[in-house]
Structures
1.
Amino acid sequence: MPLSSLRARPGCVTALALVAAVATAHDAGPLHERPNVVLARFPTDPSALQPDIAPVVGEIIARHGEEEWKAALLTNELHRHLGIYSLVGVKMGIRAREVLDASLDDLRVESHAGLHPPVSCLTDGLQVSTGASLGRGTICVADGPAGADAVFTRGEVRLRLRLRPDILQRIRQDVEKAVRQHGDLTPEYFEAIRRLSIDYWLEMDRREIFLEELSSHAPGEGPQP
Ligand SMILES: [Zn+2]
């Protein structure tokens, strides 16, 4: 299955019609802007980027927008390697902000990605892309089975996003193949994962890769796992 097939998958994305309606409504508006703290501007010029990123930066921003680019850039520097799951976390968090019309201060996040890499790398992407961080006390990692799965709460509205099983399976196969070919956690393994990550970064459309469940809970009632 070519990676490009991750883009077009009509009819299997949303679990609830309500979600589609809300998502469409919110897709129409721009994402809340990320205020800069230290940087005057985020680098987008190819000359400021690594040689394997420089040729694709224009296409990444054209396909996925500047806010996803900023969150991915910060995540990759924080996470200190290019990884598929951390990028899935970036796309998941931006998608949650899009559906819930949330700024960087609005969300509480419950990650279901566990504490063991590579799946737990997803949580770093979630922190940067949503602004919900361990330091701010607005994100936690739930006990239980680990998966590419998280719950986002804004006020009384709760959104669960899970990576589509077919995409998760594809990522697992690619990671297992890299381990077989290069050994686990070797420099060659990380090089192979880096190449794969760039492909997934470019090809995964956040509007199409998640199963989305939107619900609401009564005031005072916490988010359910
Ligand atoms: Zn990682």
2.
Amino acid sequence: MIWILGASGYIGEALVAEARRQKLPFRPVARHELDYADFRTLVTALSKDKPDFVINAGGFTGKPNVDACEKFKAETIAGNVTLALTVAQACDVAGTRLGTVSSGCIYTGAKIQRQDGSWAVEDRLTEPLISELLEKRSDRVCGFSEEDDPNFTFEHNNCSFYSGTKAVAESALRGFPDFYVWRLRIPFDEYDGPRNYLTKVQCYPRVYQNWNSLTHRGDFGRAVLAFATGKVSGGIYNMTNPGYVSTREVVEEIRKRLKPGWCPNFWSGDDEFYRFGAGTPRSNCLLDVNKSRQAHVALRPLAGALEDSFARWQKK
Ligand SMILES: NC(=O)c1ccc[n+]([C@@H]2O[C@H](COP(=O)([O-])OP(=O)(O)OC[C@H]3O[C@@H](n4cnc5c(N)ncnc54)[C@H](OP(=O)(O)O)[C@@H]3O)[C@@H](O)[C@H]2O)c1
């Protein structure tokens, strides 16, 4: 039996859909029926019902976007740090396997190979020379691996409050090496809706150009359930679709596939976006997925997952 905590959320509902599709025994768990944020309540329930695996898809992301986390700091800490640790400690005590849904938003930028062959972190992917390499899909560009220390954190003093709490939680979860931590980034799929990145891009009054790894929500669900039912080693896993994309490229695809003639306005650059369009710094980054590939739990390549989502687009 697999328990899915936070099953009512955007990511949780994809996990539920996948468990249902695979006819796996699962229980969607919501705080109002079992307060899994309370250590004693959760340990008692785990010890009694003995699920084989717990997926923690609970968290506080901020609505309509991460700017809200700057205002609701206590809720952000409770949802992202306290909850993640409470669930990990309860699973540890009860002897239950656990996977926690985390985020790649604890990084900014990517790793770029210099002319002398050495690699360095470049935290602004919108710099013209970097963008040129990204556009060419150059071999001199590489995403952050699970071995790389997060660089969009409270310690670096450059992050949103949301990202800071996700990094704190991850750092604490390293104390439970048998448990999984799955980092996803910017979820999308074929279902039009306010949480889907492909819908969001169509709704922004002005679009912000940058480069990112993304995660197809259904692919993520399939991979997470493969972890839950398989024998992959514990630890942190980057769970984005292999590849990366720019907002301009996504806009082009939307124009081609969904909205011919659509011509959105873009912010002129980072300065204008951060002056008028965003309240708190945004993570824009590339993740390396070799570890999940080697563990045979990799998602589909991003280009194909995007194409498939546009081909099967279901308008709300
Ligand atoms: N959506 C994204 O863009 C994105 C990107 C990267 C990573 N993630 C991560 O994925 C996880 C799930 O995100 P999501 O987008 O599915 O979030 P969501 O739609 O807001 O749902 C999260 C669920 O968490 C549960 N929850 C538990 N404690 C909570 C608290 N203190 N405050 C608010 N909700 C709480 C709630 O379910 P019940 O109350 O019903 O139990 C809620 O439905 C989070 O850890 C998030 O950081 C999300």
